[in-house]
């Protein structure tokens, strides 16, 4: 019986270790914390408007083809900045009130916010160089 328990522990521990190293291999910790989905108006207020860090706000929709290209591209560049900027994702179908408040008339629309104010904005798809310039301007690099 004791041998069986010891064997089970040995079999379980490597599996946990494998999962932990697998998660680290993909670098999920920094990227996941830098990007988040807005849940509602109060969440937007707390995590975007009141954020001490600059925030890129991606207004998108599930049915929007260009959004599906821009979103991952933008997330990748935000994660490379290692927490210097955050990215909030706002689905306009779920949060029409926020889309109206921020005058979003087409998707994708991306806002750059600092201290609760919109400091820059673009509509449509951008390539990686243009996105990098947009982000550098936001963080002052």
From TrEMBL:
Gene Ontology terms describing biological process: cell redox homeostasis
Signal peptide: 1-20
Keyword Transport: yes
Top-level taxon: Eukaryota
Pfam families: Thioredoxin
Claim: Signal is one of the keywords in the record: yes
Domain Thioredoxin: 24-140
Molecular-function GO term, any one: protein-disulfide reductase activity
Annotated Gene Ontology cellular component terms: mitochondrion
Family matches, as CDD domains: TRX_family
Alphabetical UniProt keywords: Disulfide bond, Electron transport, Redox-active center, Signal, Transport
InterPro entries: Thioredoxin, Thioredoxin-like_sf, Thioredoxin_CS, Thioredoxin_domain
Family under the similarity heading: Belongs to the thioredoxin family.
NCBIfam families: thioredoxin
Protein name: Thioredoxin, mitochondrial
Organism (species): Chloropsis cyanopogon
Gene designation per UniProt: Txn2
């Amino acid at each position: 019986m004791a041998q069986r328990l010891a064997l089970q522990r040995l079999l379980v521990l490597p599996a946990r270790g494998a999962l932990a190293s697998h998660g680290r291999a993909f670098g999920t910790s920094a990227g996941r914390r830098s990007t988040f989905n807005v849940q509602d108006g109060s969440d937007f207020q707390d995590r975007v408007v009141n954020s001490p860090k600059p925030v890129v706000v991606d207004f998108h929709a599930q049915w929007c083809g260009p959004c599906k290209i821009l979103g991952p591209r933008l997330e990748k560049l935000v994660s490379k900045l290692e927490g210097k900027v955050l990215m909030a994702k706002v689905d306009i179908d779920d949060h029409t009130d926020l889309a109206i408040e921020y005058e979003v008339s087409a998707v994708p629309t991306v806002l750059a916010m600092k201290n609760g104010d919109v400091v820059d904005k673009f509509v449509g798809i951008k390539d990686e160089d243009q996105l990098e310039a947009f982000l550098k301007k936001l963080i002052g690099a």
